[in-house]
Fold these 2 entries.
Entry 1:
Amino acid sequence: DTAVSQTPKYLVTQMGNDKSIKCEQNLGHDTMYWYKQDSKKFLKIMFSYNNKELIINETVPNRFSPKSPDKAHLNLHINSLELGDSAVYFCASRSTTEAFFGQGTRLTVV
Amino acid sequence: GQQVMQIPQYQHVQEGEDFTTYCNSSTTLSNIQWYKQRPGGHPVFLIQLVKSGEVKKQKRLTFQFGEAKKNSSLHITATQTTDVGTYFCAGPLAGNQFYFGTGTSLTVIP
């Protein structure tokens, strides 16, 4: 079984659309994250979610919103997509030590 | 902006040469972790260092945590083509945030 799974793996959409990326972890971890990886490979933290506490990176536009229906899921909703949103988005979960990453979602906005 | 910097950003080496990447944090870290991301893949945990001045080895990889717990290094002896990828350091910073360094992309020329 995959520890952290994301869907879809690829997402191509037009500017202005709204899209969601789903993330599920079966590790029982309390903390989940969303990261954005740009073309230079920088991994920028977007959100962390721990026991219903959401910490938002101040640089993230409010068009991005995480939704956590339960401890095992942290979905990412993006409204009014822009060209600059094109990137690979990674979901991750963490216990007290290492982080486990999903396979990533390559988002292309055209 | 990024609070955990790595140098160099890119490194090309001939197979068999050694490689080192350096990680510097603007704040003291309780621990530091290292991850490897293969091309097209997701970051995978390599190791965690906790103690000041700690040195750990994994086969050809040597990891070091600085005395002030603000810097770290990863050294690979006699690189192989399987070492290709981007190496990230990471550590817990403000709150529950888990920040990644800027990464070093390693290319090994056969």
Entry 2:
Amino acid sequence: NAGVTQTPKFRVLKTGQSMTLLCAQDMNHEYMYWYRQDPGMGLRLIHYSVGEGTTAKGEVPDGYNVSRLKKQNFLLGLESAAPSQTSVYFCASSSDSTSGGETQYFGPGTRLLVL
Amino acid sequence: AQSVAQPEDQVNVAEGNPLTVKCTYSVSGNPYLFWYVQYPNRGLQFLLKYITGDNLVKGSYGFEAEFNKSQTSFHLKKPSALVSDSALYFCAVRPPSGNTPLVFGKGTRLSVIA
């Protein structure tokens, strides 16, 4: 049981290049999330998904797109990378619950540097 | 909209002393509150959560947190700090209206000095 995994661990891009970050979970969770972490800013939600085939915008969605074609995978895309997207990206997942008390489980992060 | 405040960017404590990491929240209704810890170059790890019931919640690694509704606080505590507790701590809140994403505070860096 690997939990939440992220690929790649580290990437350097030039401004204008595109890339896709992959998140995979093996816990059969319905909900998946993408956050970015910047110094002094905490974690900010980019996009999230409440189930296969669904996505929703978070706090800072501009410049990013996501897809959830399979329940276990959540992809984050940068179509035209900008230096402002230099950050550490974390994926998380949680099970579905009407009570709202479900714990989010996090991946190890992807460090992205845009030059 | 819900929000979380962690008023201290940095907390320093001597090993063996009690530690407190502060968190206050703003949300409509009764909140779901969480604490996570992040060690260097790692993802966030769940420590504990308050959903309902006893205001004192016990979690991993000897940590506990007390929910105080009148003060809208959920401070993280440990009776005796260890050097290995040094890390970045995040408080998070979710409103009681369904399984919406967590809203995180900006984090507090805890440094335990031997």
